[in-house]
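Justification of resources, computational component.

The compute hours requested in this renewal are based largely on the per-chain cost of generating structure records like the one below. Each record pairs the submitted sequence with a full structure-token output. That output is archived, and it is also reused by downstream analysis tasks.
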Amino acid sequence: MELSESVQRGLQSLGDQAVLDRSSFPVVVDACFRSLLSSRGDPAVLDLPELKHVDKILLKQIHAAATTFILEAVKHNADKSTISSSLEELTFNTERVEIFYSTFQVCRKEKACFIGRGPAHIKDVSWRLQYQMKNGQLDKVNEPFYLISLSTENGGASEDVDFSCTAEQLQDLVGKLKDAAKSVEKASQM
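The structure output for this chain reads:
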């Protein structure tokens, strides 16, 4: 796995015992996995009493690096030797590699690494044609536009996505959706 310099620096800080002591390290690792597994980002994921002594900016850099590493490991279906060698190159000691990998395995066994951040599923679509006569500056506009509402569901939570578009933009969207449907149909026939 190739990692950027900023990710490597963040992981080196995660592995540094002077930055995170024995009790803080597993808390940070657990917080990184929890933030990836939650369907909505929790801004307070790092606001834990065990981490009050760690510089907030450094903690955010560590979190960003660790989550990037986790996602890359999942993406490449990394095994224990790959993860271990990558972390050991970044000055992780054996104990920290084991803690990190055991947490990674729990995530992988539950297949939770593949759930949570997926795209929402569209359940329903509604639309309405509107006509704009004037704008806020009292200029005549006289243009039709469409109000589109998509009812979506992600992880059991329902949410509406509303947007407006002109007739040309709607035609472009419909064309792209048709292209996507053809691609999916073609891929399923292979």
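The domain at 121-189 is CATH 3.10.450 (Nuclear Transport Factor 2; Chain: A,). The chain has two domains: 5-110, 121-189.
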